[in-house]
Design goal:
The strands form four sheets. A seven-stranded parallel β-sheet has the order 3-4-5-6-7-8-9. It contains eleven helices and 19 strands. A hairpin with a 5-residue loop joins strand 12 and strand 13. By secondary structure, the chain is of the alpha/beta class. The chain starts with a strand and ends with a strand. 26% of the residues lie in helices and 24% in strands.
Length: 344
């Protein structure tokens, strides 16, 4: 590993999160959403660890993501369905199946001679999915459907829409010859076992995000960004630092300039709010976060120097409050310039 940026990934925490979500799912199988490169952690490495922990259902967005998991041999559902351009690849991946979302996709899969599939029925998200009326009219009759699924729009809130969507799935289920029903994402699991049905599909909570209060204390942090110090320097009283001179030193301050910025997913919202950790100390960000560099006050850490590594304080709840971004955005934006290494 040669990059000046790295992600420390806690494999024990990932597996513990999966097991906690599986326990909360009750008798339902617990799958794993590994789209967006495993929420930024690395989909293949995540899938290998979760498969070893007993996970047997994985969800990605595109066929390129499915193909990347083919060497592992785990069952994969492709949430965005199948385009004309996908059909050849889709038919060549026996471990993967499309989640059919529209009459056109259903027709395409039939005409292409596709086998098993999943079907998304839209119960109120109004994003992807066939309508309950289309299902009632026989649109998916005769398909070899493994999982009939829908997606909760407001699972992270105490909304009446959650129960309306659950009831809509249960109403349409007798009309579909599907082996399993699936509705709950991470937040949906926390709504209770009435929402678990046959298969849950957690994503965010696997990676340390907490979309509902019921998950607090059950879900562990998985990701810690680490950055190397490019330079150590001294600010004298009256000196400013960074773009627009938003921070001016009252007295002498020791500063470490880190190899990280908003191009890496460490956003400008951390300016003057975020920080790093060293020997139990919180070392604050000074001034503006820039594209590739961030300044940290290391006055309390006299031994840190050029080439040393600092862990960013990236507790997702705190980082979300500091940056104004969701847990999802904070994770998936961690970019390709990071080396990734697993511990535990």
């Amino acid at each position: 590993m040669n990059a000046p940026l790295r992600l420390r990934l806690d494999g024990d925490a990932l597996v513990a999160n999966y097991r906690a979500l599986a326990q909360m799912s009750g008798a339902a199988a617990c799958g794993a959403a590994v789209k967006a490169n495993g929420y930024g952690l690395g989909a293949a490495a995540v899938a290998e660890r979760l498969a070893a922990a007993g996970c047997r259902d994985f969800f990605v967005a595109t066929w390129a993501e499915a193909a990347a998991l083919a060497p592992i041999g785990v069952p994969v559902s492709v949430l965005h369905g199948v385009r004309d351009a996908d059909l050849t690849l889709a038919l060549s991946l026996p471990m993967a199946r499309p989640v059919l979302n529209s009459p056109a996709q259903v027709a395409r899969w039939r005409a292409g001679g596709g086998g098993r599939c999943d079907v998304m029925v839209d119960t109120g998200m109004n994003r992807l999915g066939v309508s309950p009326a289309e299902v009632q009219a026989g649109l998916v009759d005769g398909l070899a459907i493994d999982t009939l699924m829908s997606h909760l729009a407001c699972a992270d809130e105490d909304s009446a829409m959650n129960e309306r969507q659950r009831a809509a799935v249960m109403a349409i289920a007798p009309r579909v010859a599907a082996a399993r029903l699936s509705l709950a994402n991470s937040a949906g699991i926390a709504l209770g076992r009435d929402y678990a049905l046959d298969l849950t599909r957690p994503g965010l909570a696997l990676y340390g995000g907490v979309p509902r209060r019921e998950l607090a204390g059950r879900i562990a942090q998985v990701v810690t960004p680490e950055a190397q110090i490019v330079q150590r320097r001294t600010l004298r009283g009256g000196d400013s630092i960074g773009y627009n001179a938003t921070f001016t030193a009252d007295g002498d301050i020791e500063v470490a300039i880190l190899n990280i910025g908003y191009a890496d997913g460490y956003w400008r919202g951390f300016s003057g709010r975020g920080g790093a950790l060293a020997a139990g100390l919180h070392l604050p960000v000074l001034g503006r976060v820039s594209m590739d560099l961030t300044a940290i006050d290391v006055t309390q850490a006299p031994d840190l120097d050029e080439g040393d590594w600092l862990a960013l304080d990236f507790d997702l709840a705190e980082a979300s409050a500091q940056s104004g971004l969701s847990h999802y955005e904070l994770l998936v934006a961690l970019g390709d310039r990071f080396d990734r290494y697993w511990v535990g």
